[in-house]
Amino acid sequence: MSTQRRPTRAVRIGNIQVGAGAPVAVQSMCATKTRDIDATVAQIAQLQRAGAAVIRIAVDNDKEVEALAEIRRQTDATLAVDLQENYRLAAKVGPHVDKIRYNPGHLHHVERDKSIADKVAWIAACARDSDCAVRIGVNCGSVAPEFLERHPGNQLEAIVQSAAHHCDLMEQLGFERFVVSLKDSDPTKVVAANTRFAEARPQVPLHLGVTEAGMPPDGIIKTRLAFEKLLAQGIGDTIRVSLTLPNDRKHEEVEVGHQILADVEAGRFISVPDFGKGLNIISCPSCSRVENEAFVDLAANVRELTAYAAKHRITIAVMGCRVNGPGETDDADLGLWCGPSTVNLKRKDVKVGSYSYEEVLPRLRDELDRIIEERAA
């Protein structure tokens, strides 16, 4: 089988091209602390050896910008940076990277008196000045409030329209060197959002990802379910596999990405008819934003602890930082978002309490048992 790619415009990211029929590029993200320069440079090399075409680093403050500058001097990798909530860092990071990623749902957090259009214009100007591409990265757990209000009860439409609006803003500025991602932890929603967006904006290259896919093997299955359907339709110009892994196994994300591409090209697809009908554990990929490396072990312990509830249709989300934690646990039946020394336990959007990494597991089991009992009643 040879998949016919949908034609999109070409976007240059450093020395590589995405879109316009170029090979699908596999990306990953460093899980090391950005300020740990030696560890980050080593992980970049690890990801490069596995075949990562673009490697993303999170930068949140001036100290991390200084580290990024030194990292840039020590590697020839194609680098992307994640602006998180601080879009004003674009001017400082631009000279050291090949792509800037911003999340439309985070732009309202700072300088609230300034319009979103003005903030996007600033990012585009910084990218142009630094010869950078841009990724407009829309995530299910942090959709811009404006679009949630416009589309009440329809998060999927809010995601698609938010992405389309930011494409309009960029194109009105004469800036077309951008790609778009529309990510969710539910592979079905990822397929629906990207299919809908591709039909509405066929010229825009798409970066595919299932956010917070979780631990292998389930995280790989979730990712494959989305990527197989989209890639088979010719949708997708670059991909990121997001798995919860310890640092020394981070390269496995890249290997899985290449394997999925090879399998789709060869017409090999998985069949898992009962997948997703029981317990669903969502966990974000280990990345440099994680505030305590115990997060990865905690996610594994949650999976082991809750195995007895495998047949119950319950979602548990385990998030590793303050960026994803608060918002992206709101829709889960039970959510844990991890700080430096404590874990916040939630039922939907209601906080149950904060506990140490050791204390939270028995409290989680109590709440899980309570949900099972309530549903049985």
What secondary-structure arrangement, pairings included, does this model have?
Layout: E1 11-13, E2 16-18, E3 25-29, H1 37-50, E4 54-58, H2 62-74, E5 79-82, H3 90-93, E6 99-102, H4 116-129, E7 133-139, H5 145-150, H6 155-172, E8 178-183, H7 187-200, E9 207-209, H8 218-232, E10 238-240, H9 252-266, E11 280-283, H10 294-305, E12 315-319, H11 325-328, E13 334-338, E14 342-347, E15 350-356, H12 360-376
Parallel strand pairs: 3-4, 3-10, 4-5, 5-6, 6-7, 7-8, 9-10, 11-12, 12-13
Antiparallel strand pairs: 1-2, 13-14, 14-15
Computed CA radius of gyration, to the nearest angstrom = 20 Å
Name of the CATH superfamily of the largest domain: Dihydropteroate synthase-like
What does the overall shape look like? globular
Major pleated sheet: 8 strands, parallel
CATH class wording of the largest domain = Alpha Beta
Annotated CATH topology of the largest domain: TIM Barrel
Total count of strands: 15
Along the chain, the helix and strand elements come as EEEHEHEHEHEHHEHEHEHEHEHEEEH
Low-confidence stretches are none
Average pLDDT reading:
93
Distance between the termini: 51 Å
The domain tally reads 2
Helix count, DSSP H or I runs of 4 or more residues: 12
What fraction of residues sit in β-strands?
A: 15-25%
Percent helix range = 25-40%
What does this structure look like?
The protein is α/β, with parallel strands linked by helices and 377 residues long. It folds into two domains: 11-266, Alpha-Beta Barrel (TIM Barrel); 280-376, Sulfite Reductase Hemoprotein, domain 1. It is built from twelve helices and 15 strands. It has an eight-stranded parallel β-sheet. Strands 11-12-13-14-15 form a five-stranded mixed β-sheet. A two-stranded antiparallel sheet has the order 1-2. Strand 3 (25-29), helix 1 and strand 4 (54-58) form a beta-alpha-beta unit. The protein is globular and about 60 Å long. 49% of the residues are buried. The model has no long low-confidence stretch (mean pLDDT 93).
